[in-house]
Amino acid sequence: MRSDWIRPSPVLAPYVDRVWSWEGTPDELPVLLPGTGAELVVQHGAPMVACTSSGTRELPAAHLLCMRRSRWRLSAAGPVRFTAVRFRAGALPHFTSVPVAAVMDDAVAAVDVFGVAGRRLAGEIRPADPLDVRARTVEALLTPLMGRSGADRLVEVAVRRTYYDAASVRVNRLGPDLGLSVRHLRRGFLATVGVPPKEFQRLARFQRSIRALLNPVRASCLPVALAAGYFDQSHFIKEFHHFTGQPPARMLGGPVSHFYYPSTSGAADA
């Protein structure tokens, strides 16, 4: 398995964590665990197939993989290679007017989310090009899309606080602290990340716990669980089983392939 990444330009950096690439064999593909992120993926090798609770489907050549509330299994008929854009939490509405809730738990063709730019992605991002060249192509297609939606800046602040500090943020204080009503905050979260604040916090807490357990060196569950804001280890095990269908000891007991990487901004993201 080989992977590489590059920082986005200063223009995109507030909204994009990285442009990255991955290539490997089908048996190296990870289970996609529930998470808050949004990834724009352009495939260059054998098409990936996702097995989800709603069925099995081949993923489009260029697709947006958005927030997931259940795990997905990936497979392919041959070597896999792709280039991807990792959006920061809550950043997607800056690039599309398609409601985030409409693309959750799905892999939607890029053209259906980004229009003409999405259609051009598969043809203009060439796998033979160095990653920095592919990144410039991505940025040339995405930058003109910025600012097409009316993203709520205060809601974005609330999303970032919840994501980066899921362990200690008190959701019932987010609105008052920012001068937002409970109704406005809930509506803003649904528009920005697709779920209400409490559910987003729950997903963010789980995702960041898993990242700590998998990357770069395995840690024991209890300290990670407590640092993430779980009451105790049994609380974490219950949540882990809810999101993955199995206890952490079974899933984390051996080598686990994953797409988790440290953020380019110094804090885990996406």
Automatic annotation (TrEMBL):
- What SMART domains does its record include? HTH_ARAC
The family database entries (InterPro entries) matched by this protein are listed as:
AraC_XylS_family_regulators, DUF6597, Homeodomain-like_sf, HTH_AraC
Give UniProt keywords alphabetically: DNA-binding, Transcription, Transcription regulation
Q: Which residues form the HTH araC/xylS-type domain?
A: 152-254
Q: Name one Pfam family in it.
A: DUF6597
Q: Which domain of life is it from?
A: Bacteria
| Record's keyword annotation contains Transcription | yes
Q: Name the chain's protein.
A: AraC family transcriptional regulator
Q: Which organism is it from?
A: Actinoplanes ianthinogenes
Taxonomic classification: Bacteria, Bacillati, Actinomycetota, Actinomycetes, Micromonosporales
